[in-house]
């Protein structure tokens, strides 16, 4: 159960070129948007986040029945560093993977469109939508990021099926492709949702400012207790933590 | 950090292919792959010629075939998918060893396998003869937005650091007896991912401050324009030129 990058020759030329134009326009838009999100800090922060996504994709998660899957990270990146920077990070990861011959040169536009633009737009859109209606606390962040990541994966599979209907080179019935792609990706999406939710939840516990676009209501402030609150006859400690 | 951080993908050498400026190689490989993708699948001889062209380039660059084949392993999941196609595709069936295979499915499998493999080999050859850093420089010289190449540069520069950090976390988990067995262990791994993100992001913040203190103003200094000469462009055009001739011939000969 691994997400496979589209190689050369899977889609015909018009679809590859069309998706390339969409991807170029999307990346152009995101370059402007990322400047707004991060200004001068864009290059180092987005670069390190891209390196993180690349590394996180190498971690295999057991999903049961002896199979394992890995994170795709579109929704995760968008929730943590913002949608524009998120698309840039995914695009750069895909670009470097193209250097490693993972994913075709002519299919780069398709890969960016599916795994970058569609999954980030859907994942982040759902996340923000839910956060707008849910109370602003950590459990809502967990629920919203689970839902966003869960839907983002089948959404990008659906976009794949759409492109396949336009210009797939294999002679398969569209219904079969749609059923197979979407049912498999709903399962992958559940895994992606759980991983994203736990990851975002633990980050929100430490650095709530890193959950993008959401200001969480702070938890109860730390209380200082003085000696008067402690029971009087505490047995002498072992002298370890003096 | 420092010297000696070359990627395992890269094979240092002094051949003519190594010496070409990266932007020439990038344009050449993209043009070559487009020629391959545009070739009708029925013209099998054309794909043979493409493979021969790549073999010549590999020999000229002194990249051993075993190296290329090992790197091809990245394509394996897709090969599995392509091999499935003859069984699930539509259309008239033909008998092969008593199994009914779809005629068009066989063609699709061949089409995808041939084109994906040729593209992968071409890219592996570029990667083997060009450092990743130089590839990004090439992209920048081809007018790719500077911000994008900067992000990619930072990613490549810190990739080993982040992956090393991830490995140390795995060792730490393992030395405490953790082994990912079932779905419930996902939470442990996801918390590691969270810690990895925080460490990466905070490293990014420190890198940014270090850059600011050295006078960073949003742009990286260009140290070397590195314009390619006409001769270098001509040398780089040999492979895609030959491929384009084959592609045109395959179209003319197509029924």
Automatic annotation (TrEMBL), chain B:
Domain of life where this protein originates: Bacteria
Ranges that cross the membrane: 20-38, 44-61, 73-89, 109-130, 142-159, 233-254
A GO cellular-component term linked to this record: ATP-binding cassette (ABC) transporter complex
PANTHER family for the chain: SLL0384 PROTEIN
Keywords carried by this UniProt record: Cell membrane, Membrane, Transmembrane, Transmembrane helix
Protein name as it appears in the record: Cobalt ECF transporter T component CbiQ
InterPro entries: ABC/ECF_trnsptr_transmembrane (IPR003339), ECF_CbiQ (IPR012809), ECF_transporter_component (IPR051611)
Cellular compartments annotated: Cell membrane
Primary gene name: cbiQ
Keyword Transmembrane applies: yes
Matches recorded under Pfam families: CbiQ (PF02361)
Keyword Transmembrane among record annotations: yes
Example GO biological process: cobalt ion transport
Membrane topology, record value: Multi-pass membrane protein
